[in-house]
Specification:
The protein contains eight helices and four strands. By secondary structure, it is mainly alpha-helical. Helix 5 runs parallel beside helix 7.
Length: about 180
Protein backbone atom coordinates (compact mmCIF):
# COMPACT_ATOMS: atom_id res chain seq x y z
CA UNK A 1 0.00 0.00 0.00
CA UNK A 2 2.88 2.37 0.84
CA UNK A 3 4.36 1.97 -2.66
CA UNK A 4 1.00 2.87 -4.21
CA UNK A 5 0.78 6.07 -2.13
CA UNK A 6 4.42 6.85 -2.93
CA UNK A 7 3.75 6.48 -6.64
CA UNK A 8 0.54 8.53 -6.65
CA UNK A 9 1.83 11.33 -4.38
CA UNK A 10 5.11 11.66 -6.27
CA UNK A 11 3.33 11.68 -9.64
CA UNK A 12 0.83 14.33 -8.53
CA UNK A 13 3.60 16.26 -6.77
CA UNK A 14 5.69 16.39 -9.93
CA UNK A 15 2.73 17.34 -12.13
CA UNK A 16 1.18 19.94 -9.81
CA UNK A 17 4.55 21.21 -8.62
CA UNK A 18 5.98 21.60 -12.12
CA UNK A 19 5.71 25.43 -12.14
CA UNK A 20 7.52 25.62 -8.78
CA UNK A 21 10.15 23.12 -9.92
CA UNK A 22 10.73 25.12 -13.09
CA UNK A 23 11.01 28.41 -11.21
CA UNK A 24 13.49 26.93 -8.71
CA UNK A 25 15.44 25.37 -11.59
CA UNK A 26 15.76 28.73 -13.34
CA UNK A 27 16.75 30.64 -10.19
CA UNK A 28 19.20 27.88 -9.26
CA UNK A 29 20.70 28.07 -12.74
CA UNK A 30 21.35 31.77 -12.21
CA UNK A 31 22.68 31.05 -8.71
CA UNK A 32 25.11 28.22 -9.45
CA UNK A 33 25.04 27.58 -13.21
CA UNK A 34 24.25 23.94 -12.37
CA UNK A 35 20.84 23.65 -10.70
CA UNK A 36 20.57 19.87 -10.35
CA UNK A 37 22.70 17.86 -7.95
CA UNK A 38 23.02 14.11 -8.45
CA UNK A 39 24.91 11.90 -6.07
CA UNK A 40 25.27 8.14 -5.68
CA UNK A 41 23.61 6.95 -2.48
CA UNK A 42 23.00 3.65 -0.71
CA UNK A 43 19.55 2.33 -1.53
CA UNK A 44 17.31 -0.65 -0.87
CA UNK A 45 19.41 -3.76 -0.23
CA UNK A 46 22.55 -1.57 -0.22
CA UNK A 47 22.27 -1.13 -3.98
CA UNK A 48 23.46 2.19 -5.42
CA UNK A 49 21.10 4.74 -6.94
CA UNK A 50 21.48 8.34 -8.08
CA UNK A 51 19.72 10.76 -5.72
CA UNK A 52 18.50 13.97 -7.38
CA UNK A 53 18.14 17.29 -5.56
CA UNK A 54 18.37 20.98 -6.30
CA UNK A 55 21.93 22.19 -5.82
CA UNK A 56 22.39 24.25 -2.65
CA UNK A 57 26.19 24.48 -2.65
CA UNK A 58 28.69 25.76 -5.17
CA UNK A 59 29.36 23.11 -7.87
CA UNK A 60 33.03 22.67 -6.89
CA UNK A 61 32.15 21.69 -3.30
CA UNK A 62 33.57 18.34 -2.14
CA UNK A 63 31.07 15.48 -2.13
CA UNK A 64 30.75 14.69 1.59
CA UNK A 65 27.89 14.15 4.02
CA UNK A 66 26.11 17.44 4.72
CA UNK A 67 27.10 17.51 8.39
CA UNK A 68 30.75 17.45 7.25
CA UNK A 69 30.35 20.10 4.55
CA UNK A 70 31.72 23.62 4.82
CA UNK A 71 28.76 25.92 5.48
CA UNK A 72 30.43 28.68 3.45
CA UNK A 73 29.85 26.53 0.33
CA UNK A 74 26.07 27.00 0.67
CA UNK A 75 24.81 29.77 -1.59
CA UNK A 76 22.26 32.34 -0.39
CA UNK A 77 19.53 30.78 -2.51
CA UNK A 78 20.74 27.34 -1.44
CA UNK A 79 20.27 28.31 2.22
CA UNK A 80 16.68 29.29 1.42
CA UNK A 81 16.12 25.98 -0.39
CA UNK A 82 17.52 24.02 2.58
CA UNK A 83 15.46 25.90 5.19
CA UNK A 84 12.26 25.49 3.15
CA UNK A 85 13.16 21.90 2.16
CA UNK A 86 12.45 22.80 -1.47
CA UNK A 87 15.84 21.33 -2.42
CA UNK A 88 14.26 17.92 -1.78
CA UNK A 89 11.50 18.26 -4.43
CA UNK A 90 13.43 16.56 -7.27
CA UNK A 91 13.57 13.43 -5.10
CA UNK A 92 9.94 12.93 -6.05
CA UNK A 93 11.42 11.58 -9.29
CA UNK A 94 13.42 9.02 -7.24
CA UNK A 95 10.19 8.09 -5.44
CA UNK A 96 8.25 7.77 -8.70
CA UNK A 97 10.93 5.42 -10.09
CA UNK A 98 10.76 3.25 -6.95
CA UNK A 99 14.30 4.02 -5.74
CA UNK A 100 12.97 5.88 -2.71
CA UNK A 101 9.84 6.26 -0.63
CA UNK A 102 8.32 9.42 0.78
CA UNK A 103 8.92 7.89 4.23
CA UNK A 104 12.00 5.86 5.07
CA UNK A 105 15.58 6.17 6.31
CA UNK A 106 17.49 9.01 4.62
CA UNK A 107 19.90 7.56 2.04
CA UNK A 108 23.55 7.81 3.01
CA UNK A 109 26.75 7.95 1.02
CA UNK A 110 28.83 4.81 0.47
CA UNK A 111 31.69 6.61 2.28
CA UNK A 112 29.68 6.66 5.54
CA UNK A 113 31.06 3.30 6.66
CA UNK A 114 30.05 3.58 10.33
CA UNK A 115 26.44 4.42 9.45
CA UNK A 116 26.28 1.63 6.86
CA UNK A 117 27.57 -0.84 9.45
CA UNK A 118 25.06 0.33 12.09
CA UNK A 119 22.20 0.17 9.58
CA UNK A 120 23.27 -3.25 8.27
CA UNK A 121 23.26 -4.74 11.75
CA UNK A 122 19.67 -3.50 12.21
CA UNK A 123 18.31 -4.52 8.75
CA UNK A 124 17.60 -0.89 7.84
CA UNK A 125 18.51 -1.55 4.21
CA UNK A 126 15.48 -3.84 3.94
CA UNK A 127 13.40 -0.67 3.42
CA UNK A 128 13.51 1.89 0.63
CA UNK A 129 15.30 5.06 1.67
CA UNK A 130 12.99 8.02 2.14
CA UNK A 131 12.69 11.76 1.95
CA UNK A 132 11.52 11.97 5.56
CA UNK A 133 10.94 9.74 8.55
CA UNK A 134 11.08 9.38 12.32
CA UNK A 135 14.70 10.55 12.55
CA UNK A 136 14.07 13.67 10.48
CA UNK A 137 11.01 14.81 12.43
CA UNK A 138 13.06 14.36 15.62
CA UNK A 139 16.08 16.23 14.19
CA UNK A 140 18.38 13.18 14.32
CA UNK A 141 20.88 13.34 11.50
CA UNK A 142 23.82 11.40 10.08
CA UNK A 143 26.28 12.95 12.53
CA UNK A 144 25.09 10.37 15.11
CA UNK A 145 25.27 7.05 13.18
CA UNK A 146 24.25 4.67 15.98
CA UNK A 147 21.29 6.77 17.14
CA UNK A 148 20.20 7.32 13.55
CA UNK A 149 20.35 3.60 12.74
CA UNK A 150 18.42 2.71 15.92
CA UNK A 151 15.77 5.33 15.07
CA UNK A 152 15.53 4.12 11.47
CA UNK A 153 15.10 0.51 12.62
CA UNK A 154 12.38 1.54 15.08
CA UNK A 155 10.56 3.46 12.36
CA UNK A 156 10.69 0.50 9.96
CA UNK A 157 9.37 -1.91 12.62
CA UNK A 158 6.51 0.38 13.65
CA UNK A 159 5.61 2.00 10.31
CA UNK A 160 1.88 2.05 9.65
CA UNK A 161 -0.17 4.06 7.19
CA UNK A 162 -1.00 6.43 10.08
CA UNK A 163 2.67 7.09 10.89
CA UNK A 164 3.48 7.29 7.17
CA UNK A 165 1.09 10.22 6.80
CA UNK A 166 2.09 11.68 10.16
CA UNK A 167 5.78 11.97 9.13
CA UNK A 168 4.80 13.54 5.81
CA UNK A 169 2.50 16.13 7.42
CA UNK A 170 5.01 16.98 10.15
CA UNK A 171 7.72 17.50 7.53
CA UNK A 172 5.52 19.58 5.23
CA UNK A 173 4.51 21.59 8.30
CA UNK A 174 8.13 22.55 8.80
CA UNK A 175 9.36 20.34 11.64
CA UNK A 176 11.47 17.83 9.72
CA UNK A 177 15.16 18.51 9.24
CA UNK A 178 17.95 17.40 7.00
CA UNK A 179 21.52 16.77 7.98
CA UNK A 180 22.90 19.37 10.32
CA UNK A 181 24.81 22.10 8.54
CA UNK A 182 25.26 25.50 10.09
CA UNK A 183 23.62 27.99 7.77
CA UNK A 184 24.08 31.72 7.90
Amino acid sequence: MQRLFDFLFSLFGLILGFPVLLMIYLISFLDTGSPIFRQERVGLGQKPFMLTKFRTMRPETASVASHLADASAVTSFGAFLRRSKLDELPQLWNVLKGEMSLVGPRPCLFSQIELISERSSRAVFSARPGITGLAQVNKIDMSTPKLLAETDALMIRELTMTTYFKYIFITVGGKGSGDAIKLK
